[in-house]
Design a protein that fits this description.
- This is GTPase Obg.
- Its cofactor is Mg(2+).
- Pfam families: GTP1_OBG, MMR_HSR1.
- Keywords: Cytoplasm, GTP-binding, Hydrolase, Magnesium, Metal-binding, Nucleotide-binding.
- With 338 residues, the chain is an alpha/beta fold.
- 17% of the residues lie in helices and 22% in strands.
- The strands form three sheets. Strands 10-11-9-12-13-14 form a six-stranded mixed sheet, sandwiched between helices. Strands 3-1-8-5-6 form a five-stranded mixed sheet, with no helix packed on it. Strands 4-2-7 form a three-stranded mixed sheet, with no helix packed on it.
- The two termini are 38 Å apart.
Length: 338
């Protein structure tokens, strides 16, 4: 299945049915009064979040969605049936935005959450509605109203507790595969990950949490360089970040350079990402053979002010320490939210 996280669609509520012009016609009532029924209301277009969908792929092949129109009124005071609502199922985490202004119209971030995207038009009143003391036989009725029309941008932001960030080839895919059941493509070259990957992580008796791996970032990502810019939005909702650094590729003279480069991209993209709590994980430490070198790297990264953990996603060394630190940080985030 292709991962599609953006789609532009147009939705139209159903038009209301027309009111009816009718008069009673009975054997012994030669001049019966008006009995035209009302038209039915047009159906609404409704977005509903569901866990059964993980992509907006369906909306790439069809742009216009129109709810059913209301039926017309009939004689003998028969009102027209209302049009059926059109329910569009979207993945949990979908944003609906106004195409022109970018305003967020709805944030469907819980399963079963609904939002009326376009309301159906009101049905027209039949001529029986227009009888007055001076107008006993009105020969007109209302037409049904047009439904609302809206053009909007659907944007999917994955819901995860922990987001993995770092340069391409830092080992994010290997890490998420090591701590969860996720099976992303893994290879020893940049941009192996082309779509976000989600994995559910279990550690001890702590509640399971969801980890998201996005394509690696490069310098200038917030301006569109590389692949990561398209997917940074998927970690905006995360509670904490894991900044993964390839310890085996760090310069002896400036080991913090790759860390600073990624942090600049996060802060440039949004204040929200720059302010999130994070853990720095020095990955591939099994390839750093000198003990003194390992200690120097840990000391350098402790100056960032964030917790630092030495790991090897490939050999799984240090992963329990990383998971323990994540569980502690997530508990602190939940406590602060109460």
């Amino acid at each position: 299945m292709r991962f599609i996280d953006e789609a532009k669609i147009q939705v139209e509520g159903g038009r209301g049915g027309n009111g009816c012009v009718s008069f009673r016609r009975e054997k012994y009532v030669p001049r019966g009064g008006p009995d035209g029924g009302d038209g039915g209301k047009g159906g609404d277009v409704i977005l509903e979040a569901t866990e059964r969908k993980q992509t907006l792929l369906d909306f790439r092949y069809r742009r216009l969605y129109r709810a059913e129109r209301g039926r017309h009124g009939q004689g003998k005071a028969k009102h027209g049936r209302g049009g059926k609502d059109l329910v569009l199922h979207v993945p949990v985490g979908t944003l609906a935005k106004d195409v022109e202004t970018g305003e967020v119209l709805a944030d469907l971030n819980r399963p079963g959450m609904r939002w009326v995207a376009a309301r159906g038009g009101r049905g027209g009143r039949g001529n029986a509605r227009f009888v007055t003391s001076t107008r006993q036989a009105p020969r007109y009725a209302e037409e049904g109203e047009e439904g609302e029309t809206r053009e909007m941008q659907l944007e999917l932001k994955l819901l995860a507790d922990v987001g993995l960030v770092g340069l391409p080839n830092a080992g994010k895919s290997t890490l998420i595969a090591a701590v969860s059941a996720a099976r992303p493509k893994i290879a020893d070259y940049p941009f192996t990950t082309l779509i976000p990957n989600l994995g559910v992580v279990h550690y001890g008796d702590a509640p399971p949490f969801v980890m998201a791996d996005i394509p690696g970032l490069i310098e200038g990502a917030h301006e569109g360089a590389g692949l990561g810019i398209r997917f940074l939005k998927h970690i905006e909702r995360t509670k904490v970040l894991v900044h993964l650094v390839d310890a085996s590729a760090l310069s002896p003279t400036d080991p913090l350079a790759p860390y600073r480069a990624i942090e600049r991209e996060l802060e440039s993209y949004s204040d929200t990402l720059g302010e999130k709590d994070r853990i720095v994980a020095l990955n591939k430490m099994d390839l750093v053979t000198e003990e003194a070198r390992r200690e120097d790297l840990l000391a350098a990264y402790r100056t960032t002010g964030h917790p630092v953990v030495a790991v090897s996603a490939l050999t799984r060394r240090g992963l329990p320490d990383l998971l323990k630190a994540l569980v502690r940080l997530l508990r602190d985030e939940e406590a602060d939210a109460l």
